């Protein structure tokens, strides 16, 4: 970024380029947070639901469906954030 002529310093948001880059970074951090949540919380919960399904099939299936629905929602949000990152990249490039 320091090579770009639009860069005016750290935490200086005085142009459209700087705002676009800031929003791009915020969306990217959101993507990282969602991925970390999926890895640290949802995948272990899926493993626990699979173990529960061996002992209590109905309860395990219900829990598994609930976790899968949450995963699908988070993956869709992650996709939207990825499109936002691309949009702000294009916006910053066009300025």
Polypeptide structure, described:
This protein is mainly alpha-helical. It has one domain. The protein is built from 2 helices and no strands. Helix 1 (16-55) packs antiparallel against helix 2. 6% of the residues are buried. The model has no long low-confidence stretch (mean pLDDT 87).
| Low-pLDDT segments | none
Termini distance?
A: 14 Å
| Mean pLDDT across every amino acid position | 87
Assign an overall shape.
rod-shaped
Number of domains: 1
Overall radius of gyration? 20 Å
Could you estimate the helical fraction of the residues in percent? over 70%
Helical run tally: 2
- Report the order of strands and helices: HH
Structural class: mainly alpha
How is the main sheet built?
Answer: none
**What is the total tally of β strands?**
0
Q: Tell me the β content.
A: under 5%
List key phrases describing it.
single chain, 0% strand, 95 residues, rod-shaped, mainly alpha
SSE topology:
Elements: H1 16-55, H2 57-94
Summarize the structure.
By secondary structure, the chain is mostly helical. Helix content is 82%, strand content 0%. The protein has 2 helices and no strands.
């Amino acid at each position: 970024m320091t090579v770009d002529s639009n860069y005016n310093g750290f935490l200086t948001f005085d142009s459209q380029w700087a705002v676009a880059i800031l929003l791009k970074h915020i969306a990217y951090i959101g993507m990282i947070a969602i991925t970390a949540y999926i890895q640290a919380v949802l995948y272990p919960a899926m493993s626990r639901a699979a173990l529960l399904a061996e002992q209590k099939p109905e309860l395990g299936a219900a829990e598994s469906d609930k976790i899968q629905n949450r995963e699908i929602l988070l993956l869709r949000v992650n996709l939207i954030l990825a499109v936002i990152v691309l949009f702000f990249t294009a916006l910053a490039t066009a300025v």
